[in-house]
Amino acid sequence: MRPRYIQMNENAIEIQNLSFAYNPHPVLEEVSMQVKKGEFLAVLGPNGGGKTTLMRILLSILKPSRGQARVLGSPPGTLPHLVGYVPQSQSKADKFPITVRDTVLLGRLGPLGRWRHFTDRDSELARQALEQVGMQDCAGRNIGSLSGGQRQRVLIARALVAQPQILFLDEPTAAVDQAFHTRFYDLLKGLNDRGTTILVISHDLSVLSSHVKAVACVNRSLYYHDSAEISQEMLEKVYHCPVELIAHGDVPHRVLRHH
Amino acid sequence: MLEILQYDFMRNALAAGFLGSIACGIIGAMVVVNRLVFISGGIAHASYGGIGLAFFAGFPPSLGAGLAALVSALTMGLVSHSRKHRADTFIGVIWAVGMSMGIILLDLTPGYRVDLMSYLFGSILMVPASALWTMAGLSLAITILVLVFYKDFLAMSHDEEFARAMGGPVTALYFLLLVMVAMTVVMTIQVVGLILVIALLTIPSYIAEKYSGSLKQMMLLAVIISTVFTQTGIWLAYYLDLTTGATIVLVAAAAFIISGLLPGRSIKGKAKHKS
Which residues, including other chains, have CB under 8 Å from residue A40's CB and lie 6 or more apart? Predict the structure, then answer.
């Protein structure tokens, strides 16, 4: 339909006139965006503004009402082995009988394919992913016995274990402690430096401002700020969006000055 | 005590209890972790419509129950997918309508009225050898299906959205699970009757979950617990001259209460690692 060969190679995400409604309430309206490969994009916006919905569409968890999206040049859901996902922390799975190790192993589901079983290599990758988030000592524990922050780290490991080309994170640090927080964003930066495209929904500008390369604000519509470096200007643009700020970390006053 | 084993009907009953326990343990574990208890109850009761139809139209009642269970399982699956916010209401309606159709169809059936109690409360002492083969086949099929798709079922049960994002065939697995619930229900009707099916699907799995570190372990433990319940219930019912299905369920209920008083694995795990 559209001759977009060049962009298909350059863009990790292409969204065209995308709309979504939980009928009859519109959540996203005519959203368009292009995200380059290797981008580190922060998605901001108020609660209920559609950030999570947009991410779920890109992950093929939800189907858009209108418009289309492409992830790594293909429709969402067709390249699960290249995609990593850290969902919002939820307490629903609390009582589920599964160990930390097995939870992370399930992150290998996409790369594994339907008819194969987990191998020693998958176990080794799971061990490494747990090390990356500092949870290797908890591998044999049941997920229900962990604290919220620890569980969140396990879910991060579950996304890393797939060694994805594009990583979607939905408020990944909402429950974790400050020490891990900084370490985690450095970890993301390392992945990004090695070419992983990253989309992160977060309210936490204090850390984001030193790591992300671009910002998108979602509040039914989408405002995209492509910025090669983090600047005052970008921060100002961010504040023009209706963002709820939760500021902590080393630079809270800088963040709040523009608020 | 072993002299009752010389009776064919007793040997068949114990075998039926064991075979039913395999399916109930494996599928019950997935019913519990996926919160499908209400749907399972609905499938069990709606299958009565098929039993009524079978008597009315003159084909084997177990075939009727199986078809009705399958149709209602798939209908409830569609409803719970498309009308999520009112799914429980629709399931309740299908539950009652299926049951009522069974009653009316039996009213309309001329001639001898079979003992309906045996379908409502089980007829494990009258299980023919041929039914045992069917039960064995269904249990084997369920075991193989769950083993083949284990990692996918695990992913779906643990985190449905993540499984979807990882390309897991979540919708197909959901319907496959419902079909297996229907198969299990039909088997278990023989053992404890359609009203009490829900007890054998939930109680062993609930107890098993407390002591399990994985879904696989939970399934295996639930099979063992369910087997203990059915065998104990059959013996007790024989010696005390009680209705077998209800005795099995009360044995399960007693264990359910006792297990509630005992600490489970997760509590111990928490006490050990205070962090």
Answer: A188, A189, A192, A197, A198, A200, A211, A212, A213, A214
